[in-house]
Design brief:
single chain, 307 residues, alpha/beta, five-stranded parallel sheet, four-stranded parallel sheet, binds phosphoric acid mono(formamide)ester, aspartate carbamoyltransferase activity, Asp_carbamoyltransf, Asp_carbamoyltransf_Asp/Orn-bd, Asp/Orn_carbamoylTrfase_sf, Aspartate carbamoyltransferase
Length: 307
């Protein structure tokens, strides 16, 4: 496919190939600050309609390390702030012939909509509560590096699953790679009929974390809870915040992940988040650049082939 919109776009061999490629980029990035010419002469546009620290900067770095010309459009200082629609913005930018468009938007489906309006490759960098496929890829890379495999592991994804595009993409990719997934969180923050995703659902951290190899915490997304149930952060931490005591239920050697940004003392205790013996959180950030280099490289090959 020309675009990368969903973690479900990847079958197991494609996902494994991307992880192998990303692994090679991890080694490359650690050895040198040189750039490659895989995307030489190509233009990458970052269109972040929602805030980002990790994803935007890692796509920018990934594009530059591969030799692309990178343009960052800031909606706050662009004509979006004057009321221009997503479609008009897309058609306008398309006239400048970008090869790769990376989009983050608050609306689920925005990346798919953009892909129907432009001639370049679209990469979904997070659309509403729908998907964040490159996050799932960097998470799988982090898990594979920590355990040597993803297949057969038990991953507990915990917290505000309802509003989490990270959870949806991770469930899809982890299943493709042969892991089993449990979702853990309060009923009010769990999608209706989440069991249909092929997961087990727990509302209690003790049972949800029991024997888990990976504990993936999610941010409480208060900005997506307009007028709905908003938990008290103190009470939330008591029942669903990850601390040593709750983590002790997981398997020996279990690893802790968080896509960031973290709400310390809300969904995760600093004592756990900052412990390099258990936390993969900084590895996840490093893997973000390599995983995105792999995705851009695979799309560049399709651009070359005219697919
Ligand atoms: N994990 C993630 O998407 O982080 P940012 O919002 O900082 O990009």
């Amino acid at each position: 496919k020309r675009h990368f919109l969903s973690a479900g776009d990847l079958n197991a061999p494609q996902a494994a190939d991307l992880l192998d490629l990303a692994e090679a980029f991890v080694a490359f990035n650690r050895q040198t600050s040189k750039t490659l010419d895989i995307l030489k002469g190509r233009t990458l546009m970052n269109l972040f309609f929602e805030n980002s620290t990790r994803t935007q900067s890692s796509f920018e770095l990934a594009g530059k390390r591969l030799g692309a010309d990178v343009v960052n459009m800031n909606p706050k200082t662009s004509s979006v702030a004057k009321g221009e629609t997503l479609i008009d913005t897309a058609v306008t930018l398309n006239a400048m012939r970008p090869d790769l468009l990376v989009i983050r938007h608050a609306s689920s489906g925005a990346a798919s909509l953009l892909s129907q309006k432009v001639s370049g490759s679209v990469i979904n960098a997070g659309d509403g509560q729908h998907e964040h496929p490159t996050q799932a890829l960097l998470d799988a890379l982090s898990i594979r590096r920590a355990f040597g495999r993803v297949s057969g592991l038990s991953v507990a994804i915990c917290g505000d699953v309802l509003h989490s595009r990270v959870a949806r993409s991770n469930v899809a990719l982890l299943h493709t790679l042969g892991a089993s997934v449990r979702l853990v969180g309060p009923p009010t923050l769990m999608p209706a009929q989440a069991e249909r995703w092929g997961v087990t659902v727990h509302h209690d951290m003790k049972s949800g974390l029991a024997g888990a190899d990976v504990v993936m915490m999610l941010r409480l997304q208060l900005e997506r809870m307009q007028g709905a149930f908003v938990p008290s952060t103190r009470e939330y931490f008591r029942f669903y915040g990850l601390d040593r005591e709750k983590l002790s239920r997981a398997a020996p050697g279990a690893k802790v992940m968080h896509p960031g940004p973290m709400n310390r003392g809300v969904e995760i205790d600093s004592d756990v988040a900052d412990d390099p013996a258990v936390s993969l959180i900084q590895d996840q950030v490093e893997m973000g650049v390599a995983a995105r280099m792999a995705v851009l490289t695979s799309l560049a090959a399709r651009l070359e082939a005219g697919q």
